[in-house]
Amino acid sequence: MNQHYLPQLYLNNFTATDDPKRQGPYLWVFRNARWGQQTPKGTASAPNFYAFNDANGNVDHRVDDFFQSLETNFAPVIARLALSPPDVLSDDDRYWLSLLIVSMRLRVPGYIDSFAKGIEQCYKQVHWLQYQQFKENPDSFDRAKEWLRTDKKLDLPEMTVEDLHPDKYTVVVPNAYVVTTSLNQLTKLAELISQMNWSLYSIDSPGFITSDYPVVSITPGATNRLFGGGWGDPGVEVTFPLTSKLGLLCCWKEGPRFALRRPTIEQLRTMNLRTIDSATDSMIISPAKVFP
């Protein structure tokens, strides 16, 4: 089952029109140092990307089902904004857009891989400490084996301490585990985003691009980018290309809670460059075969 980490309803807002011979909607996708035409259905997806096996060994798609249920609420909001960008944003629209921003940050490969590496390193460190403890105190290892035999009915008479060396094991963190863990913070992070001041940048012709990591947070001028860009940072700027004609900027700077603006060329360029810089698989999605 093919599962999208960028929803098709989102990708449909970046389709191109510069090839009249092309049948059906398509995107210009820059990847592996070249441009290519792709359909929204065939872009930013992977087989069973969010799937996992349940206790009975059956494939469970509930994570993807959850995202699809959210998308049914996002779709009319995005469609309405694209048709007529508003001067005032309703509380309902702000709520759903906040959930959209957070979910689009948590569901993409770049975020998932980074989170999974942190979990992997943690498990390996714990495993290493346990291995060292058993190596220095063989009696504790024997007691652990006896506990497994009596309490867990797992008899491992041939196992030695060296069988537990961390280099002999690989930690695999399923995408579904990362996503479900992160989704526990969905409403909390959405509330944080909703409290920021929003600027919706609107342009007449397609000019915003997106990528496989579309929600970018950065603190301009920060000397340490690794720890900059936290959503609670007073100077943070969160950018999100909503469509090829609409770009959203969220920040804590003084100003109106919501404003519809015309971006300058420099503002448009800056947002696009941040989107490009954050792409994790060199995947740039554009409404035209140009490098912005």
Question: In summary, what is this structure?
Answer:
The chain has 8 helices and 13 strands.
Question: Can you describe this structure?
Answer:
β10 and β11 form a beta hairpin. The model has no long low-confidence stretch (mean pLDDT 91). The chain has 8 helices and 13 strands. It has 292 residues and is of the alpha+beta class.
Strand numbers in spatial order across the main sheet: 9-10-11-7-12
Uncertain runs: none
Overall helicity: 40-55%
Largest sheet: 5 strands, mixed
Sketch the topology as an H/E string, one letter per element.
EHEEEEEHHHHHHEEEEEEHE
Rg estimate, integer Å: 23 Å
Helix/strand layout:
Elements lengths: L1 E3 L3 H4 L15 E5 L2 E5 L6 E3 L4 E2 L5 E2 L1 H22 L7 H16 L2 H28 L1 H14 L23 H9 L2 H10 L1 E6 L7 E2 L4 E3 L18 E5 L4 E6 L6 E4 L3 H14 L5 E3 L6
Parallel strand pairs: 7-12
Antiparallel strand pairs: 1-4, 2-3, 2-13, 5-6, 7-11, 8-13, 9-10, 10-11
